[in-house]
Design goal:
With about 475 residues, this protein is an alpha/beta fold. The protein is built from 18 helices and 10 strands.
Amino acid sequence: MYTIRTGMTTEEKLEILADAAKYDVACTSSGVDRKGQKGMLGNCSAPGICHTFASDGRCISLLKILMTNHCIYDCKYCINRYSNDVPRAAFTPEEICELTIEFYKRNYIEGLFLSSGIVKSPGHTMELMCRVLYKLRTEYKFNGYIHIKAIPGVPDELIAKAGYLADRVSINMEFAVEDSLKKFAPNKNFKTIMNPMEKISDTIALHRLACGKDARMERSAGNRYLENSIFNVKRLEERGFGRKELPVSFANGDLRRSFAPAGQSTQMIIGAGNETDYELLQTTQKLYQNYDLKRVFYSAYVPLNEDSVLPAIGTPVPLLREHRLYQADWLLRYYGFQADELLTEEKPDFNEQLDPKCDWALRHLNLFPVEIMKASFELLLRVPGIGPTSAKRIVQSRRYGTLNYEQLKKMGVVLKRAHYFITCGGKMMYKVPIEEQYITKELTVVNRKENWEIVHRNQYHQMSLFDDYAIG
């Protein structure tokens, strides 16, 4: 068992534990709108948090640290695994509280992201993390944004405490299939991950009902297109959930405070195991449907550990694949696509040179070109180069007259992609063959610069966690 090194300054601990936290992807818009309160320090704005930089240059707004990088687990992909010889450190709850408040007062941060390695046991570690949150909320009167990374396999009451004290709770799923989890993280299993994830989602939904809100209307906005949602009335009734009822294990929570108002998220590692994009996307869709996750994050694996089952050190980081998965995730949540439409068992991986919507359109050229003046909103959303905003503008504007390509450009349509798939007034923008091989070649050239920038982004500008993954 590890012994906690003593005699370190807070600055030395911060250098180690902030760097150790950089592989947790967690900085998304907060989803919480909480105004300042008299006697409290800080607030939380719904548009999100931004404009702070981590030591490696990423744009974040949170004090993003581990409580400790000591760990009793030996997950093969993790830099902080038990068998690695790396500098170890640990914060006390009081040190984290002082850092958070002092950084906030200096306008360095607007919130806290707290994760941790496992020291002694999952329950012991989670208890320490909850102590940090409790002190911040009660003794230090901190009203700002807090995201906590919950540890699988802890008692329900600790998950409940975290949910009532934090704004967002996340549990890393790590891999899309259980075989990979067993292979790379032998101390973890899907049951200990999915059980608290289900209880968190149930409690979020039921807390909304207990507060008199419509859970269906309050669900994560991006999941509205996915069928068989957790917030389907029939599903709630089948599970026996009443309007004022909460699961027993969570019943002692303080209803005066919303339970995880920013929802929950998870993270999957890309490129360490052998999962296909199809398996990753199928798992993602099920997570959105069954647990109404706020986001599923994808983390391209950075080869840091020497192990026979891992990619060799020096293997290129699959940043372009990560980017395509984020784009596909956007299609699931905002464009009306289902996972089975984007990939199949016969075609299990995306063409990395094309965005997923272009890839889908090229496999369904029988549906194109579509006439801008007649196509439904749902069909317009499936045209490469047309997003939700431009589709709405088209539908509204065509009521009052005929549209032309110049007007479409002003509405935000990306014509360098869209012109292969649309007609305007019965005419195409250019006379081009509607043929898969030809259009694939042309779109690959269009995407070449963007693809190069994604693959080499760490080499030429600060890596931002606020990259816009929305696609047209």
